[in-house]
Amino acid sequence: MCLIVFAWKVHPRYSLVLAANRDEFLDRPSSPLDYWTDQPDVLGGRDTEKGGSWLAANVDGRWAAVTNFRDGRPAVPSPLSRGHLVAGYVSSRASAPTYAAEILQPLSAYPGCNLLFGDSRSLFYASNRHLPGTATQVTSLSPGVYGLSNHLLDTPWPKVERCKASMRELLDGGETGLADGLFDLLADRTLAADDELPATGVPSERERMLSAPFIVAEGYGTRASTVLLADNDGTVIIKERSFGDGGAELARRSKGFHSANDPA
């Protein structure tokens, strides 16, 4: 994922309201939202090149999502895929607090990334990049509306701030049209003004292209938009819209499950 906006324990019906865009090279092989054949209790898209996932959930109610971290550092080849952090959690039996205690040291070995993971009771944020002078840590998030792109949580990039504002408006509007409204905010192709662009070490032309919530570029762009709604009664619905060259919509999918209990 490259953009995630989410509301945690803010909506009266949904403990989690999440909207996310996955930006990736168009030729990278992946499979769409579905239950995994080798892990039938896991639902999500899958990177078929490395076997990980950008966003996935277990039918017991645990879920995780990841974004890359963009800071201009030269890419260092690594056998580790950030998507394995998502797959590792939802394929395990670890509770969110247990995973939070276990993941800090292993996380440092991965290329730059942010990780969100949780269950019906708790939500955690972790990054292997952090502000100078501060220690890397896993943070338990309190109720609120958050935004995450390719920097630290709630870094005020224009697309993050715009999508958080749209999320708040949708939450104030209740339940009617919530999912469609979330897809609308993810479909925003508005570029940031040049004087608002972050400086992340990439050329200004690329920085401008990456500043839209929905990205369209030659050979690269938003491949999938995902909405996750976790009802207080344990029902989880995940909706996905997939896209191809030029941002053309290819398909829509919707899957769900009812989780009676999270793991202890």
TL;DR of this structure?
With 264 residues, the chain is an alpha+beta fold. The protein has helices at residues 83-90, 96-107, 158-172, 178-186, 204-209; strands at 3-8, 14-25, 30-35, 42-47, 55-58, 63-68, 113-118, 123-127, 138-140, 144-148, 216-217, 220-231, 235-243, 249-258. Helices cover 19% and strands 35% of the residues.
Which key terms come to mind for this protein?
264 residues; 7-stranded antiparallel beta sheet; alpha+beta; Penicillin V Acylase, Chain A
Q: What topology does this entry show?
A:
Elements: E1 3-8, E2 14-25, E3 30-35, E4 42-47, E5 55-58, E6 63-68, H1 83-90, H2 96-107, E7 113-118, E8 123-127, E9 138-140, E10 144-148, H3 158-172, H4 178-186, H5 204-209, E11 216-217, E12 220-231, E13 235-243, E14 249-258
Antiparallel strand pairs: 1-2, 1-10, 2-12, 3-4, 4-5, 5-6, 6-7, 7-8, 8-9, 11-12, 12-13, 13-14
Written description of the protein model:
The chain is α+β, with helices and mostly antiparallel strands and 264 residues long. It has one domain: Penicillin V Acylase, Chain A (4-Layer Sandwich), CATH 3.60.60.10. Helices cover 19% and strands 35% of the residues. It has 5 helices and 14 strands. The chain has helices spanning 83-90, 96-107, 158-172, 178-186, 204-209, and strands at 3-8, 14-25, 30-35, 42-47, 55-58, 63-68, 113-118, 123-127, 138-140, 144-148, 216-217, 220-231, 235-243, 249-258. The strands form 2 sheets. Strands 1, 2, 10, 11, 12, 13 and 14 form a 7-stranded antiparallel beta sheet that branches. A 7-stranded antiparallel beta sheet has the order 3-4-5-6-7-8-9, with helices on one face. Helix 3 (158-172) runs antiparallel to helix 4. The longest helix is centred in the middle third of the chain and has 15 residues, at 158-172. The chain is globular, with a radius of gyration of 17 Å. The model has no long low-confidence stretch (mean pLDDT 93).
